[in-house]
Design goal:
With about 190 residues, the chain is α/β, with parallel strands linked by helices. About 55% of the residues lie in helices and about 10% in strands. It has eight helices and five strands. Bound molecules: adenosine monophosphate.
């Protein structure tokens, strides 16, 4: 199954993706994690991305597409994947659609985790305490939510227009939201 998780920063994409990976037995591809690994390794790409990420802006579409092409070319994605953090704008959505069509692996589902903005801010603040991410400072969080609203929210309409969108209520416990996602995409794999 090829699945993309959509939702604002703090909507729970990463947490649900980790759970879905176990359940569906497909790799979890997080572009944020891939970028953080490059930054940690101090690679040329990481050095380019570091400042942009720290202030909550988007890293260039070229870098992201290159990273994804690379990741999709690995054998473990042949049986599907869960993508989280990409696409972040319409250009990325178009580029990935073209890439997946070219390699004959079109997306099966786009799941949007719907969470009200007040709760997003609260969740990110909790994560800042727990993980101390460089882009969880109040200014960077404001910027990331603004970038989401302006650039990423239109991606939801892209998938709606392609008939691939499923909206899931992202408010509730990890288990509750997980069950809703499974019921929406793979009821035959639902437990209980
Ligand atoms: P995330 O972990 O998905 O919240 O991503 C953390 C940061 O990595 C974002 O705020 C961006 O700076 C960068 N990033 C992750 N995915 C993308 C993407 N698809 N396009 C551009 N920048 C990205």
């Amino acid at each position: 199954m090829r699945l993309v998780l959509l939702g604002a920063p703090g909507s729970g994409k990463g947490t649900q993706a980790a759970r879905l990976k176990e359940h569906l037995q497909v790799p979890h591809i997080s572009t944020g994690d891939l970028l953080r690994a490059e930054v940690a390794a101090g690679s040329p790409l990481g050095l380019q991305a570091r400042e942009v990420m720290a202030r909550g802006d988007l890293v260039s579409d070229e870098i992201l597409l290159g990273m994804l092409e690379d990741r999709f070319s690995r054998a473990d994605t042949k049986g599907g994947f869960i993508l989280d953090g990409y696409p972040r704008n319409l250009a990325q959505a178009d580029a990935m659609d073209a890439l997946l069509t070219r390699i004959g692996q079109p997306m099966d589902y786009a799941v949007q985790l719907d969470v009200p903005v007040e709760l997003l801010v609260e969740r990110i603040a909790g994560r800042a305490k727990a993980e101390g991410r460089a882009d969880d400072s109040p200014e960077a969080v404001r910027k990331r939510l603004q970038v989401y609203e302006n650039q990423t929210a239109p991606v939801i309409e892209f998938y709606r227009a392609h008939g691939q969108l499923t909206v899931v209520d992202g408010v509730g416990s990890l288990d509750e939201v997980f069950t809703r996602i499974i019921e929406a995409i793979a009821p035959e794999k639902a437990v209980g």
